[in-house]
Every structure is written in C-alpha cells, then in structure tokens.
Design goal:
It is a single chain. With 177 residues, this protein is mostly helical. It has one domain. 74% of the residues lie in helices and 0% in strands.
C-alpha cells in the first residue's frame, strides 16, 4: 500500500508539472502567433484550466514534502510532550477540511456532468472535463492528509517532517528564503 500511495503522490506531482509546462507552451505559442498576426483561439480558457489543474494536482505531493503552509511554526515551539497531540489535532482539522473539500468538489463536478454544463469561453466543451483535474487533485490531497494522520496516530513520523529533516541535513534552507 505504501508503494502505491507514494507512486500516486509522485504521479500527481508529475502531472502538475506537465500542466505547468503546458501553460508555458500555450503562452509561448500565443505570443509567437500574435507576432505572426495570428490568433490562438481559446488560449485563455486552456491556460485557466491548466492553472487549476496544476494547483490541485500538486496538493498531495507538496503536502507530503512539507512544502505547503502548515502550523509547524507554532507546533515546533511546543514542548515535546504537547507537540504530538497538537500535531494530531492540527492534522484532524486538516483532514476534516480536506474531506469536505473533496466531497464538495466531487459533487460540483457531478452536477456539471448531470446538468450538461458547457464551458462559457471560446472552447465549447462539457465543463466537467477540465473540472475533473480539480476533483482528482482534491481527492489525492484528502488521501495524503489521511495517510499522514494514520501514520502519526500509529506513532510514526509524518513524511513532511522527514522531508524537512532531510533538507536541513543537506543544508538546504531554500524554504526559509
């Protein structure tokens, strides 16, 4: 199970990176075509959908790597005896938020599909298609938070903590810049 989850988070992060590269490609193509006197129709719609996909597909991966904003500044200052319960409480709140977000997004995308909504921009496609990346990212983020919550409750060290320790051991303080 651990191998599957790690691959899921890595694949989601890689797909987010592909979406980010696609944003650059579309924007460069749009600029080049504008110089040539041509128009890349729907580029704004495509870039908007890719931005949403990039942001949501990266959530699970960045959470596990300790690169999302967390309450670490507060928790790290607590005495060791109070740190673990505070971390569990913080993850429980994050888990509740992630569960609600995943449920709400899945319902939103389902409603778009059920009502046959079509994109309002130049590209007329069923809107649930670009929204699907939003739903997939939200579900993967929920799974990542649940994964870390279970690890912590079982007495283990969360992946985001291990990642931070590895960066500090490698003298990588780029996150503090």
């Amino acid at each position: 199970m651990r191998r599957f989850l790690d691959r899921l988070y890595a694949a989601s992060g890689a797909l987010a990176a592909v979406c980010l590269a696609a944003i650059a490609a579309v924007m460069l193509a749009q600029a080049a075509m504008r110089e040539a006197g041509m128009l890349l129709r729907g580029a704004d719609d495509i870039v908007a959908w890719l931005c949403a996909a990039t942001a949501f597909l990266a959530l699970g991966h960045t959470f596990r790597r300790g690169e999302l904003v967390r309450v670490g500044l507060l928790i790290e200052r607590l005495p060791p005896r109070a740190r673990r319960p505070a971390e569990i409480a913080a993850l429980a709140v994050a888990l509740a938020f992630a569960a609600y977000m995943a449920w709400a997004v899945l319902r939103f995308v389902y409603d778009s599909w059920r009502f046959n909504e079509v994109a309002q921009g130049l590209i007329k496609i069923p809107i649930w298609i670009p929204q699907a990346s939003f739903a997939v990212g939200a579900v993967i983020f929920f799974v990542a938070v649940l994964d870390e919550f279970v690890v912590l409750v079982r007495g283990g060290k969360p992946a985001y903590e291990r990642s931070e320790e590895e960066r500090r051991a490698a003298k990588d303080f780029s996150e503090t810049l």
